[in-house]
Design brief:
By secondary structure, this protein is of the alpha/beta class. The protein folds into two domains: about 120 residues, Rossmann fold, CATH 3.40.50.720; about 190 residues, NAD(P)-binding Rossmann-like Domain (Rossmann fold), CATH 3.40.50.720. Helix content is about 35%, strand content about 15%. The chain has a seven-stranded parallel β-sheet, with helices on both faces. A five-stranded parallel β-sheet has the order 2-1-3-4-5. It is globular, with a radius of gyration of 21 Å. It starts with a strand and ends in a 9-residue tail after the last helix. The chain binds nicotinamide-adenine-dinucleotide.
């Protein structure tokens, strides 16, 4: 099949090309993000391959459907950027990679927790300047704390598994209880109780209308003073304005983000020579107790191999008229 790969970076090209060896799929890599204005690049292709910040809203899908692509293959687990109703009405098949490496995201989540707790980002900068003072670097023993996991699916459970090894008390909230989480000793509680009891809140629910701004001013007000909040799921789980107020008042003691509500215009690009226009994002960067990474939690060799393998397998299944099981 002829595949138009959008939001393509050199690493996508490397891993997808390798995964496609031995198939007759022809991959063309476009650096452009997919949206209604770039959708015409996919004219003449059978498959559109898209990533997390591509815009698969109704207008884009309508434009894509005009050229009759047969399949839209997401290189992501999350699909909050796809208008599923529009896709259905346009008869577009959408596939995703539901579980490429929960461990990659879970390990990055714990990396953010530890780096914030022990102030590794600040210590690194200080030591390079020849400043070996410890003032301001006081941390806490993570293993003696209670961690609240919101969304105990594949990634949430993997986070719980790692933190159990640290000795943390684990509480969780989900719309479904996961036996794997219970087996790890995680206690399910109502959301308000989780806010009240957790020293560290970590978000692993998908972005849906129900989880949009699940961490808002009300939630933050119910949290412990000095709480650590970590989000490696999707940016809009947190109301950024409310988080900034929480940081200013000291209610939030640490904030670790791999995702940001308005990341679409920022992430995955080198903006070091430009003036960032997003004032909220710029404000976040000024706090010493905020650590932001640019949606890199998935970014391990194992995860990229799995994403590429599963994406090509999804396309092959479709080409052969089979279901991959990854259809939305
Ligand atoms: P999953 O489907 O295995 O788990 C999600 C869990 O959230 C499920 O248990 C589900 O029941 C729960 N959930 C759904 N609605 C909820 C609600 N209203 N309140 C509480 N819980 C709710 O998904 P996963 O593989 O664990 O991935 C979780 C999220 O991580 C994805 O949706 C994606 O947005 C994000 N993600 C981020 C990266 C990254 O690089 N930062 C990479 C992969 C996935």
């Amino acid at each position: 099949m002829r595949v138009a790969v959008f939001s393509s970076k050199p690493y996508d090209e490397k891993f997808l090309t390798k995964a496609a060896e031995g198939t007759d799929h022809e991959l063309t890599f476009f650096e452009a993000r997919l949206d209604r204005s770039t959708a015409s690049l996919a004219d003449g292709y059978d498959v559109v391959c898209a990533f997390v910040n591509d815009d698969l809203g109704a207008a884009t899908l309508l434009r894509l459907a005009r050229a009759e692509p047969k399949l839209i293959a997401l290189r992501s687990a999350g699909f909050n950027h796809v208008d599923l109703d529009a896709a259905k009405s346009l008869d577009l098949t959408i596939v995703r990679v539901p579980a490429y490496s929960p461990r990659s995201v879970a390990e990055h989540t714990v990396a953010l927790m530890l780096a914030l707790d022990r102030k590794i980002h600040r210590a690194h900068a200080r030591v390079r300047e020849g400043n070996l003072s410890l003032d301001g670097l006081l941390g806490f023993d993570l293993g003696s704390r209670t961690v609240g996991v919101v969304g105990t699916g594949k990634i949430g459970v993997e986070v719980a598994r790692i933190l159990k090894g640290f000795g943390c008390d684990l509480i969780g909230y989900d719309v479904f209880e996961n036996p794997d989480a219970i087996a790890l000793g995680l206690e399910y509680v109502e959301l308000k109780e989780l806010w009240e009891r957790a020293d560290v809140v970590t978000l692993h629910a998908p972005l849906t209308p129900e989880t949009h701004h699940i961490v808002d001013a009300f939630a933050i007000a119910n949290m412990k003073d000095g709480v650590m909040v970590i989000n490696t799921s999707r940016g809009a789980l947190i109301d950024t304005a409310a988080a900034i107020e929480g940081l200013k008042s000291g209610k939030i003691g640490h904030l670790g983000l791999d995702v940001y509500e308005e990341e679409g215009d920022l992430f995955f690009e080198d903006l070091s020579d430009t003036v960032i226009q997003d004032d909220m994002f710029s404000r976040l960067l000024t706090f010493p107790n905020v650590l932001i990474t640019g949606h890199q939690a998935f970014f391990t060799v194992e995860a990229l191999e799995a994403i590429a393998h599963d994406t090509i397998a999804n396309i092959s299944a479709f080409a052969e008229g089979r279901k991959s099981g990854n259809e939305l």
